[in-house]
Amino acid sequence: MNSAATLAWFARHELRIAWRDWLGMMTSGRRSRRIGVALGLATVAVVMHLLAYAVVGRTADPFASPAPATLIVISASIVLGWALVLSQAIEQATKVFYARGDLDLIMSSPYPLATVMSLRMAAVALTMIALAFVMVLPFVDVLALKGGVRWFATYGVTVAAALSATATALLATVALFRIFGPRRTRLAAQVVSAIVGAGFVIALQVGAILSFGTMSRFAVLMSDHAGDYAPAPDSILWWPARAILGDGVALFALVSVSLVLLGAAMAVCAPLFGDSVMHVAAGSVATRTIAAAKPFRTRSPRQALRRKELMLLQRDPWLLSQTLMQLLYLLPPALMMWRSFGSGAGTALLLMPVIVMAAGQLAGGIAWLSISGEDAPDLIATIPLPPSAVMRAKVEVVLIAIAAVLTPLLVPMAIASPRAALVAASGAAIAAVAATAIQYWFRGQARRSQFRRRHTSSRIATFAEAFSSIGWAAVSTLVLISPLVAGITAGLLLLVLALTYAISPRRA
Amino acid sequence: MMLRATVHLTEPADLALCLRGLTKRFDRPVVDRLDLSIKRGEFYALLGPNGAGKTTTLRMVAGLLKPDGGAISVLGIDALRDPVAAKQLIAWVSDEPMLYDKLTPMEYLEFVGGLWGVEAGTSERSARELLISLGLEAHLNERCEGFSRGMRQKVTLAGALVHDPKLIILDEPLTGLDAVSARHVKGLLRERVARGRTVIMTTHILEVAERMADRIGVIVAGRLIAEGTLDELRQQIGEGDSSLEDLFVALVGGEMVAA
């Protein structure tokens, strides 16, 4: 086989593995679920199109003479989407370093590692294009339906955005690896990814709050202030927006530049990635010393369990990045509350649903790590404690962790509005307990490192957890606005939880 | 065919482990009405071909699996009726070392000590001694995430011994250990037996069973087909100076052909 044929053969192999991985993730490895998954995806597509229609269905035709405000909004949307894709691309690129899988086999074969890395980088780019398409497809379809096929140019911009985001992510990942080394790059990448993904939206909100006293991002984008700072109409910075609005030259330039950028990034990164992968392989043998290890002193077996769980949670890179993400999302409403400190419960209302939802989502993740993600199941099963006591200690840890994260937010809220703080604390507690209960009902046995795949083990648990977190956030807000509606909503949520319990494997 | 040497077990109080009619079925009987008696202070090696039911038997004793039938008595305690009391006396080490990557060996051992209610100072002292005796002195405060399989196995073994269990159950404990480490582990286990503790071990390394075990049990298809000291097994087979490997092949080969 010549080198091109070998490359194609290897690309086919990678594609087959990726397809089977995706299929396995969607169907949990059961062939019988394929039809259900196909129907589910079709339903999601229809719902997304309906949502897109509600959002952009009445958009005026901007093609005639795009106003500066339109260009600003389109450009901001592109930057937002680009940041989200970049965030995902950084995570994907980091996985190339750390996913051992078949790398030992490949590294021991005579196949050039740089070529393998190039293929895997190309796979990241393709994944990002697919992700970006999923994000924009419903909106573009609706806009094309209403405004004509000219809107399909958006797909070209989407490809360009995904390619350039991947190129940036590859360079960023190599840079992170050089700065932080093999041991800390994964955590650093997760933190950077969280900040990049949420950063742009939060920056817009913070700008809106500081300038206009509102959390509306559009207030900033549509303001005269933004117009004053906007570049000149013929600036190259408008090219992505102009490409979406049908400027063929801008579109061609954008796609070309992105392709060149990705090619250059791959050429630069391929040997560095190969080098880094070997470092990671060597790093997996290296160890990390705890500088000032404190004795693990406990008074009872249950306390020992709690201490161990809390220690592992503190050292869990996923949890650190997710907590950071949740706190980032809490930043704008917290800032809003700080600006209008003392003005009563009105601003606390903004913070409340975010706190309750964060509590539910974090509790779900922590509960999975604590209840299902047990790395030494045999040890825990053989300790001289009844299983109920073990489980109680694990649940206590979830609640302690949530309280530790949320207390610094609830205390100032209590000073500003005790009633709102009480409702928020109650809502957060209920959301956390509900999420923990769902994880308990659907508990399994897995390694903590399998956390990212937890959603695939039970779709019902995933949906129930998300529904519960959002629902209790709504109930908490409604308690202050309309207690009756809050009561009805809470009743419905309890019904959903009861149904979830009824169909859970533990009940069955 | 059941070849059993004379076992002088008159009082149940002498027994560290007593299994009666122990049964476990998955899609077929994996452990089939198994009777087994192991004395206190005995080093017992449970041998058998792959899939014979050794690990399943030991997992039931350790409380990791519920039997479909039969009885398990651990140092006089009914392990099925009062599993917590039985577990207080047992340590279990599986063939696959399971550790917390983010804990150091010291933290892990002190955690295990805490689970068994060992006083913190004693636990810390004992943990340090065990880890040092297993050659892990330089790694006491390093996280386990970068450890080799052998190092992980040593930490797991130390964890099993830190609370000074009366019945130590080991499933292939020497897998992944180098010769020096294996010798350390064997020394530690012999020392525990000398102090009156009981060790039950499965192994495919017959030389280890031959050298270390006071008695050997051979299990095939979930049933004990032979049991006794090495000399007693030789007498039963009728081959005076055979190695354990020869005896094992003679016993298991015949049973597997019969099955």
* Secondary-structure element series of chain B: EEEEHEEHEHHHEHEHEEHH
Mind summarizing the main beta sheet of chain B? 7 strands, mixed
Mean pLDDT of chain B equals 86
* Low-confidence sequence ranges of chain B: 3-11
CATH superfamily of the largest domain in chain B: P-loop containing nucleotide triphosphate hydrolases
Mean pLDDT of chain A: 81
Overall CATH architecture of the largest domain in chain B: 3-Layer(aba) Sandwich
Shape of chain B: globular
**H/E order of the elements of chain A?**
HHHHHHHHHHHHHHHHHHH
Rg over alpha carbons of chain B: 18 Å
Rg of chain A, nearest Å: 25 Å
Major protein interface: A-B, 37 and 41 residues
CATH top level of the largest domain in chain B is Alpha Beta
Helix content of chain B: 25-40%
List descriptors.
heterodimer, A: 508 residues, mainly alpha, 3 domains, 19 helices, globular, B: 259 residues, alpha/beta, Rossmann fold, 2 domains, seven-stranded mixed beta sheet, four-stranded antiparallel beta sheet, 9 helices, disordered N terminus
Explain this structure to me?
The complex is a heterodimer of chains A (508) and B (259). Chain A has 508 residues and is mainly α. Chain A has 3 domains: 56 residues, no CATH class; 223 residues, no CATH class; 203 residues, no CATH class. Chain A contains 19 helices and no strands. Chain A is globular and about 70 Å long. In chain A, 39% of the residues are buried. The model of chain A has no long low-confidence stretch (mean pLDDT 81). By secondary structure, chain B is of the alpha/beta class. Chain B has 2 domains: 181 residues, P-loop containing nucleotide triphosphate hydrolases (Rossmann fold); 66 residues, no CATH class. Chain B is built from 9 helices and 11 strands. A 7-stranded mixed β-sheet of chain B has the order 1-11-10-4-9-8-7, with helices on both faces. In chain B, strands 3-2-5-6 form a 4-stranded antiparallel β-sheet. In chain B, β10 and β11 form a beta hairpin. The radius of gyration of chain B is 18 Å and the shape is globular. Chains A and B meet through α11 and α14 of A and α2, β7, α3 and α4 of B.
